[in-house]
Records
---
Amino acid sequence: MEVTWEIFVLGLVVIASPLALVAVLGTTALIGKPLSESKTQNWTYATTIIGLIAALAILAMMLADDKRYIPIELGNWVAIPDQHFHFSLKFVFDRLSVPFVILSYVLCGTIGAFTSRYLHREPGYLRFYVCYSFFVLGMIVSSLAGTIEVLFLGWELVGLSSALLVAFFHDRKSPVRNGLRVWSVYRVSDAAFLVAAVALHHLTGGGDFGGLMGIGSWPDGIATLTSEQAMFVGLLLLVAAAGKSALVPFSGWLPRAMEGPTPSSAIFYGALSVHLGAFLLLRISPILELSLILSVTVVAIGLVTAIFASVAARVQTDIKSALAYASLTQVGIIVAEIGLGLRYIALIHIIGHACLRTLQLLRAPTLLHDYQVLENAIGQQDATPTAAGGHWTPTWLRERVYRFASERGHLDSLIDSYVVYPIRRVLLQCDAWERAWTDFLSGTQSRESDAVPVHDDVVEELRL
Amino acid sequence: MPVQFDLERLRETIEHAAHLLPAQGPITAFVHHNTLHAFEDLPFKEAVVKGADTFGCHPYLPEERYRQKLSRGRILPEDVEAVLMEELEDQGDDLLGFFGTRFQLRMAMLAHPLRTGTANELRWIIAETDALTTVREEVPSNLRDQLLAGTTRWIMRDFRNGQARNQKGQRIRASLDPLFELFDKQNIESWSEATWESFSLHALWIACRDGAMQCAVQSKSHRTYTRHRDLLLAKTGSDTDDLVHDVLIRLTAAFLDQGFADWTLPSREAGLYQAFLRLYSDHAGVTDRWTRGLATEARRLIEAGISPLESIDESLQMLGVEEGQEQVFIADTLLALRGYAGMIWQLETRGDRAARQIPPGSLVEFLAVRLILDRTALGYVAREEFDFTGALNTLLPQLRAQENKGTTTSVDQRAFEVFQLAQVVGWLPEHLFRLSADEWTQLFEEIDAFPSLERRCIYHLAFERRYRIQALDAVANHCRRIASGDTAQSPNKATRPSMQVITCIDDREESFRRHLEEVEPACETFGAAGFFAIAMYYRGAADAHFTPLCPVSIKPQQYVVEKTVYSFAKAGQQRRNRRRIIGTVTRHGHNSSRTFAGGWLAALLGSLASVPLVMRIVFPRTTTQLQKFFGDFVLPPVLTNLHLERTQAEPGPEPDQVGYSVTEMAAIVERVLRDIGLTQNLSRMIVLCGHGSSSLNNPHESAYNCGACAGARGGPNARAFAQMANDPRVRELVVANGIPLPDDSVFVGAYHNTCDDSVEFYDLDRLPTTHSSDFEQASDAIQTARGRNAHERCRRFYSAPLSLTDQDALKHVEGRANDLSQARPEYNHATNALCFVGQREWSRNLFLDRRAFLQSYDPAQDDADHSILTRVLQAAIPVCAGINLEYYFSCVDPVGWGAGNKLPHNIAALLGVMDGASSDLRPGLYRQMIEIHEPMRLLFVIETTPAVLLNIMAANEGMDRLVRGSWVQVATVEPESGTIMLFQSGEFVPYYPSTNPLPIRTTSLDWYRGWRDHLGFASISADAVSNDEPVVQHLRKGH
């Protein structure tokens, strides 16, 4: 398909503006000349607005020319004809990516404006914006990705910047620990993604979604895989999506991610990051169609997540956890919609949900004020809260349901007890063997680090 | 029965420990408290140390911060000297042999930072930094030259050439010999200066280490751990509190929840303990590894019917808590999750403030649950980390036995302190080598006797001293000018003022009043506690409930209701219905957006949310204006009135019980007028101004409201007072009681929003037409003054350019108040440092930089018993001290005593805030609120005599405790004579102010223009020629 140079330039601008922000913020910080608050702010505004305008212009041109598929190719970087392997940098503007790009720009821009005042005079101001710029870049790259490798690139940028922002307040223990937890879950999902990408290459000789989907642009493409192949790749990608979108059984990290400053929680876990898994499923939706088992699995995981999250949301006593589970409920429904093949509805759902949840999370600190206003308007306090599962259920069931919801579905316990703990035991055992062996060889205690106390003594400034 | 006696004692122990918990109640009614209220019976200096030890927080700012203040001139060297001299009393001049006097040694230790670290860190510093090659940069060049010259001379004389004559000499030689190997000994004569510098420092370091090794001083032992968790953490690095708190926070928050969660905790009504046991007695699904066994334990406790107290007793025995240790153990255990424990105790003891109450004894139940979880987690971690299989009560002795005792100060640490000190004092290696072991011991004892904590204390006192001197000098100076008639600013007592404005004593109203007096020199202003003596339960036309509008210490008797005026009753009803419908719909929308189906629907329409989202954030002020425009369709009609007069004898919430009797009203009016000394020369227009604050994105919003209204907005009090004082029947009674209230004096109520600096007036439709022009004049002055006030406030906001005009400043503060993303809507009481109690004429036109509470009081009108001063101080001292001390502690340790950083705050259970996803509740003030505060104890300057004040203190125990315990600083002033007496160490001593003139400026703007930081005092005088005081120039230059 021929692409006019105007569209090519606009497409480049869409991708290059977040890249420029990364370069400016990152380089100045690296060479020890960090930008001031106002300059950081201006660069952020400028790049976001330019990117957004370019994206809108492309949308307008696509509507005017009734084009559905605009590829922007930036070269074939690796080609091994013998192995039928090639790696090309390719971006695609179509009916899925354009709305997603515009959504990303609007929400990120709003959050950028919000944060410039919210983090005013905060020591980590620039650090936030560096992570933020990586995040925007990641979102744009993954939205526009025309090949699975490019999608993986954006996916990783989003994952890394999200985990770093969870651990934004690294002088306290729990943000760091929770950030690490988010990161660990992301690694699992990334591994699945990578395996899927390799498999796709193996099966189709390239990572292009275009080639994979055969004829027709999104959402009308028809994949060229067999049913078994589709199921294999699809299940791997489903694991990847489940990790990123906190679907069951990975849901435990989502409420834990509410450690960063409020705007970063809003954008990442309320709006964009959490929908990226659903986006991946949308992107590969032609594959889902090929295998019934796969589609059923996607619907099942989506529904289970939605039901679990809506139960868990009911017992949360703090606003951010409640919103995290509310978010998850909708993500679950979206995934189920995708499994059912309702692609446009899922897309509308994602966009609407992202906007709504961002607003709600940004307003979260105003909760007490808002409750007061509502209470005054209604003239009384809200009706008394209900018992878990309704009044008609027997006590034991109520307690069980409540316990289940309060323990967040035991999902973290499940992972900790049956995955983390056994692995850790094995590693510790190996470590013990190694120690015994090296001690034996050196004839003495071989590890100096053993002698270092876990907590060193207190310094004078704190001594009383 | 002995068991019951024990349990009763246990309960008392727990309740005793409960007093250590934070006293902050639900955040929706934020009341400022002295953070260390538990230690208020101790003197301040002892209390902060004890508090710091108990809570693990800092008692003062870090030394570094004080040193910054020293370098900026906020502390002068003479302050440090004076304070140190005073603290040392007669021991300052004790000679310490070679080291000079004790005073000199301590001054040297104060003058420059004495860096220290862990033994490993110091070893690194010695090995890897330039500590041994370059003299500290703080060392003056003459001392450096002296060190180099002295060492060179000594080495060349005694070591390069010459022989060791005695044993000591040989020893020195033996220590120095390895050093020569590091340097090129052959060419010693051609060593460069840098080489000699390095060599001298190496020699000095060896001398210090040598001395430290000879020293026999034992360092103080550390605090001993009482909880198993602390020892286990130190030993293994695994924190059982992480495990326990994960469960406990969820459970406690669900138990305390005031209506946020959709589902309530099952068996909540049976109490926390029962709810916990029932919930966890079930072997439900997969549980965390460490909680295995909990279900069995919970079943056992249920089946055996063990009460919470019995369970605590049992847990203490299982844990092997030693006899006599249980008090500390229980206190430390409760303090481990102090925010939630404190909230339980507050709700338990002051349940009237909460929508959903909790049964008494909940704190005991909380402790019982906590100990059950504690022992489960301890057993698990000990088992996992070091295969501990014994009974839990043997864990503590075992951990104690293995406790790392190596926490005594090491030789390196000691030596490093002297090494740094030697450089700044100019001790040479030669001299140090010659010291005897006894002398070394003496030196180390002296150094140990003046640790960082003591140094910070000295600095802090010096910091307070500087401000106190500046303030008292300014007061003396200003009073002298006024008494000598040097200023024509104040309205002449003989002429009638154009208007009189009564505001709250709040420090934020200081600048508002000052600007008003500058704009309208013929006006007078007064300060009274912002509830204007009207203690009432108030319900506005659009409010759901009655709110108490009075200080927390008072329980109101009367109720007041705001009603739409009769002719608008129908419209009012319609709008109330609209509000209710919109409210109900919003509420449902809000809740159901978090559910399955409702959320689905909401999310499909969610794209619409992008409009308010973007608007709110990008154009906050316009959005609010739009919202107001549409709000007019639902808000109650503007015309309302207060149902203020009672027809029945007894007050109550029922319609005919609402309000006050005429006699009660007269008593209130008379009391306020007498308190502030407004009993003659009343003007035609008297404005009462209550205050409050509104902001978005601020869980602590209520902390910004009027302190005298218990964290609510004080507008209705001003309105009610004006209505009372305008009532002819009331005025008749007031006049009969001896206050000549002219018939043409009209009172108008107003409300000042300290965040967006708006002022709105009440009941203007009742204003007599004869007073229209008076009101317009007053209103114009107030409009101008609020613009100027906003402008002065903006100098403190870094995001507001210094070049703003008054109008831009108003827009700026309006934007702040309505901005979702604003973490600092206003600075609240930050920088408060002073409280004046006396006639305004003495503080009028004195630039106080929004740092002073101003209570009006006229001693001439007081009776022989000083009952007016007594009641004024009974309110002012505890309230202002509470605000000041909360700011103090939140500021010196924002993480320990304050609420930490606001940015990750998360509202929990509608009661308080947590950090991020899950943490303890965070009482206190958050960091953005106190960032410009300067922690110092409030200085009261009271227009009275020491004798009167001592009498009042003697009769008021609470006040006496605060003053004698030095929780506040107190000075009395007799302005006519200029006598100032300062309360120090239990008595009033005369203060001799300096005679340096104060800087004089024509307007406040001339003084504060272009300046963001702290500003000193200045006289504002429209007709005077500006002078510029040298000291102040120095200060301004200092940045």
Note: Chain B touches chain A through 119 residues (CB under 8 Å).
---
Amino acid sequence: MEKKKRGFWRWLIASVMLRLILIYLPKTFNLASRPEVSTPLVSLRRLAEGYWLKQSSISPYAGSMYHGSPLLLSLLGPLTVKRIEGQPNHLLCSLVFVIADIISALLIRATGHTLQMAYRQSLNSLDIVDLLKSSDLLSSGDIAALVYLWNPFTIAACVGLSTSPVENLVVILALHGACKGLVPLAAFGWVMSTHLSLYPAILIIPVILLLGYGPDTPPRKLYLQKGYGKNGDNHSSDNCGQQETNQSKAEVTFSWRPVIHFLFWSSLWSAYVLVLCSISVKPHGSLWEMFQRTYGFILTMEDMSPNIGVLWYFFAEVFDFFRSFFLIVFHLNILFMILPLAIRLKHRPCFLAFIYIAISSMLKSYPSVGDSALYLGLLGLFLDELADMKFSFFLLCGYIGVSLLSPVMHNLWIWRGTGNANFYYATGMAYACLQIILVVESVSAVLNHDRKLRKLSVTKLRDGNS
Amino acid sequence: MPKTETGTPKMKPRPIVRLGIFLISHSLLVCVVCCTAGVLALLLLPLLAKNTYISENALMPGSASSMISNRDISEANRLASDLSGLNFEPQDAAALESRGILTKYMSDLGAEVSYHKFHHKPNQFHPLHFFSSPDSTSSVKNFSCSAHGLNTVGIIRAPRGDGKEAIVLVTPYKFGKRGATYKFGKSGAAETLSLSIAYTVFSLLSRVTWLAKDIIWFVADSQYGEYAPVEAWLRDYHLPVFTGLGTLNADTCIKIDDLYVFEQKSIAQRKISDGFRRAGTMAAALILKVADRNELLEDTLNIYAEASNGQMPNLDLINIVNYLAVHRQGLRVKVEKVLTLLDSRWLEILGEIFELLGKVARSLNPGWKFGISAADYIEGSATLASSLYYQALGIPTGPHGAFRDFQVDAITLEISPKVFPHNKARHNEFLLRGGRLVEGVIRSINNLLEKFHQSFFLYMLTSPSKFVSVGVYMIAFALLVAPLPLVAASLYADANQLDLGVKNTKSTPTATASDELDITFRSWKWLYAAREVFLIHVWGAAVLLLPYFICQIPNCSPTSSTVIWVFLSMLSLLILYLIGVSPSTHVSISQPEEKGEWAILKSATISVVFIGLLVMSVVNFAAAEIGALLLVPMCLMAQPLKLDMKVGKLRSFLRIICNVVLGFVAFPPAAFFVVKTIFEGFDSIDMGDFWNWMESLWAWNSATYIYIGMVHLPCWVLCIHILLHSC
């Protein structure tokens, strides 16, 4: 165990070294201008532009350059203009992103430990300990953190001067706070992530479930069955029913107190953020302008420059009078999936959050590789549940293939002029398909895992009874 | 890609899934059929070639009569005699003088003349250059002051145009006779001849009223090769540098500047701008050369079109040149051929078989006309082979390659005269023909309303008037690589003992709990294979970077460089093997299985080969095709030799032989030397050749270099690893 821990720290330091080396390389890779890495929302170049506008007492949102939060502007803006002699241009910002990545990884690790503890406890309480043998070797938190750190997408987003490491950090902060039951932290993370990139707003459901029920557990029915089995000796059904309800109440009750706290804290934090924002934009504009230029920009899909998503091409082609209709359709797409998933996966709120993030990063208007980095990192948290996931090898090959093909197709279209937009869009479609397969397979793997647990506990009970 | 697994065996899966499963379970048959069909389709390509046609209607080649008159030609002759009458003793002075003459002639025609100075950079290995777009390579540091050249640029503004578009005419010319070995003689005469042709056209174009695009006549100072000046000028044309360069020059290159100033003074009365002159975006570029060898039969035009990484100019450009040269000027048009293939016996037999088949088909139904004569077939395949080879190398075949990097279509026209023109009338006729050809082409391009886009960009030529388009040649490649995902899936399924629903295994729905426990983590077993594959690819990247360090060793002959490279590669592989592939990691997971871990390793290897070939086929099709011919059979055949040894049947013996032969041939240096032996004989083999070849690849930023290092070599190593696997 000690050795493993040291191994973790070694890998962490190695990943930081790699990042620093990449930062110090001459900018021949041009990562910062790649459409895969920097979208209009997360590009640091745009942020620097917004800061410059603000410094010359113009609204930072003038000219449709900057579309991020004013808080990020006043946080990262001064760093973009600071140059150190003989060092890469955006060194300080890059360092901030590296630190954000490290903190995210550590938070993922802590969350993973919490989740694994909860998993073990629930297995213990169900008496299926032999399942633990296989998972003893691996600590899912460590692996998830390392996956997050070493994922080429994360590295590209970190080195490529996009603000997505910061956005990922606040999302992870919210999840971590909710897992640990730290209500103010969870509320802060949720409010900040919603403020920064809007889509994490849907995470309110998993966060509330997490606070209400606690971390991921097998389905509640199992406990009911268990209670039933334990009391199977006395055959009076009435009695049994009584006890069962008693016991299940003890195990799975939705506690409203933290939820109320959460709502209170999040309203507090949002008021705070709004006040800060209004102070920040006051001299040049209003809060309304900020909402229009950030959330409005996200929702109306104004910028149709190519990215790895599927919406830009569609809205470049669609007739103008259908535009608002399809905007509503595409955004409702995300909302449609929220409720069914929440009902089906309510016993695994953390996993639910992962699924939400994956879906929104697939359907959002300006996706970048930073979003994929987030959900791929979270994927590692559910190592025990996803142990027999299908198509894992196919998915890996697909991700590698798409991430190699996408720049090549872009080059063919933009630089060589022998291809066209369809070539690049095809890779975007393939990428979306891969994400769909990932979501579908991981959900079905988790459901299968639940079935397996039930089977195990049933056989255990039968053995115990006989 | 069809999925490997079906969800539940009880339910009858969908037809497409059933089809996928059927293909996967019969993967051996599919492999053999697809690979054979792929090779056959490649051999059939000369048969399937279509005749070229002019796709863009606006071009209208040859619709107007030529306007070049004897006056233009006599002017050009005067220029030529002025140039060749110079005294060549002090070289710099001669260069100045000839440039002055050229400038005088140009500006007399009313053209804007300017000079463009460039610095020659010797080729250096830069590992990051492969990934950078042309705009980021503005590294002007580290040039040596002595190596500089001065190009002359003349621009005619179009009377009908708005100055937004331009056509470029390039003639390479050696101004300064710096090279000690260079003697002004025949080749100089050829260059002067190309200058006279260009001048003929230029003087005509300065008078015509129909010009809608500016004409840039670029006389490239070709003392450092023909590519470098064109490339430097294009870069300055498209990517102006605003800072740094001027001050840098002032500091380091005083002598040159003095020279430059002196030159400026000497021709001060002329209308010369010292700034960089620009016209509009380039619609097309023609590089005009006169070959110094003479043809026996008739005037011949050689077309060179391959740019970097197998890019080709738009087919319409070649079409109009071919059309005008053949139908108007009566020139013989040629494209590059592999001459050794012309008298190869097996190709002849193949051609005769195809001819026979064509005859049989025609006797059955006169409407089927796919047969071509055996001679045509041989000619076509020799041309196709050369087309494939030059595209696969990814090295431009002339200065036109520089234009393609800026999305300008360009070709090199090399005209070889019949006899060396001492005969005055013959000389003038030659000038007239060349001039009319260039004039016709420029007039066609002048008609163009948009960029070239109508015709093909992805094609291969089988003769100047026949081509194979991407839709046809992709079939051969697709057939070749189609078995890869199937075999990968089937191996993966076998190794994981997945039930494909066809093997008639009744899966027990009531599996006991302990069974299910075993299945846990089985689906992640491939992680170890993936790790191994990843490590080998890291090694491949390291091998790619080694030349960077080897280049730093001073006075290293190519042979010793090769030896050092091979030695270091082996050493690093050994180190990697000792560190990375430690056996302890395998213990926890390796359980008795049907086929063992080599199957999963093979599956992972094949997947990587598939991805690599797919990406490469988009970047450079020809390289991917040749790579697939070598890699695919080897990957599909690979099986541990030990297993085959144990069986000891004839079939397994054959497989061992095949494996060993394929494993030898697919090794890049071995493949190189085998091909060299076949084409040039055994005695011309030298170890250093391989180094030189690879050096030319990285010097030209060819993607083939990356392909060899990141796909071909690692996969070869993995296949050898599978062959020697102790299962």
Note: Residues 2-25+40-217+252-385 of chain A form one domain.
